[in-house]
Amino acid sequence: MRLGVIDLGSNTIRLVVYQWNGQSLEVLENVKHHTRNIKFVRHALMSKEGLDYIVSSVKELMVIARAYDVDHLHIFATASLRNIKNSDDAVSYIENEIEHVIDLLNGDEESLFGFEGMRRTVSLPLEGLSVDIGGASTEITYFKNNKAVFMGSLPMGSLNLFIQHVHNVMPTESEQFLIRLDVQNHLESLVWLNQLKVNSVIGIGGSARAIMRLHQAKYDINTSIYDIHLSKQRVSELANFNMDQRDMETRLILKAIPDRMTTVIPGAIIIDEIMNLIHADDYAVSLYGVREGYLFNRILKDIEMAKQ
């Protein structure tokens, strides 16, 4: 069975086509559009220009999905459309233009799907924290004994932190300080998180992987990013962009993760502050995330229920 999933995020819109044989999942195609939808949001409202830009990208990805003759195509959206005042109108407009339903996930659903995707590819410790950094939100899940216990979604992401605080390309020391204050203020709102002391943090999503790819490039490591574990000290080093070595560090980022140039430092600061808060000293990343969790826990479950 071929399944297509379009993930309508704040930084990118991505289509992944999977082959599912009833036991294992194979990726047949993975296409990403860097749309940065959040740049079309003013005063918490998505502009008509932004909606048309999304429609254009989604229609193109739908054509690719049809070329693969998918049996089922699902489209879901997260904070990009969830955290705007005209959310209902925006979703309705896009659905009418593309002639396809959009599944708008709430924060808890996004957190849970991220965790469910992660636990299928990561050997989980007894307890830990999964952190899914998006462009406009961050989903945090505390798990214990392979089950999600607490979940929270915060309206901060690697892209909106960059847009709000950085005036050039790379953040100055004062801008990094302001990003940290912003992250700390958001983290304070999760009461359960402030009471935790957990050693392991597992990152989900492109920003989380970018941190690991930057570490790879900095130390010329050939090991897969999914087999690397970073200490709190290493994460802090990556999160602090040194303006005294600006040219060298910028070239390193451009070489390793050019598509994440503006978001890798804000993303790393989010991870760094979370690890500070819960006294964690182990950071790893997951191959699977919210898309795969959505596929297993919604699409495949719905298909099985329809057969009954």
Tell me the number of strands: 12
CATH superfamily of the largest domain, please?
Exopolyphosphatase. Domain 2
Mean pLDDT: 94
User: Radius of gyration over alpha carbons?
Assistant: 19 Å
- Low-confidence segments, given as residue ranges, are none
Side by side, the strands of the main sheet go: 3-2-1-6-7
Number of domains: 2
From the spread of the alpha carbons, the general shape counts as globular
Beta content comes to 15-25%
CATH classification, class level of the largest domain:
Alpha Beta
CATH fold type of the largest domain: Nucleotidyltransferase, domain 5
The helicity comes to 40-55%
- Content-based structural category: alpha/beta
In CATH, the architecture of the largest domain is 2-Layer Sandwich
Explain the overall architecture:
- Helix 6 packs across helix 10 and helix 7 crosses helix 9.
- This protein folds into 2 domains: 2-104, 2-Layer Sandwich (Nucleotidyltransferase, domain 5); 122-285, Nucleotidyltransferase, domain 5.
- The protein is α/β, with parallel strands linked by helices.
- Strands 3-2-1-6-7 form a 5-stranded mixed beta sheet, with helices on both faces.
- The protein has helices at residues 48-67, 79-82, 87-98, 107-118, 158-165, 173-187, 206-218, 232-239, 246-256, 264-278, 290-307; strands spanning 2-8, 13-20, 25-33, 41-42, 45-46, 72-77, 103-104, 127-133, 138-144, 147-154, 200-204, 282-285.
- Strand 2 and strand 3 form a beta hairpin.
- The mean pLDDT is 94.
Give a brief rundown of this model.
This protein is 44% helix and 22% strand. The chain has 11 helices and 12 strands.
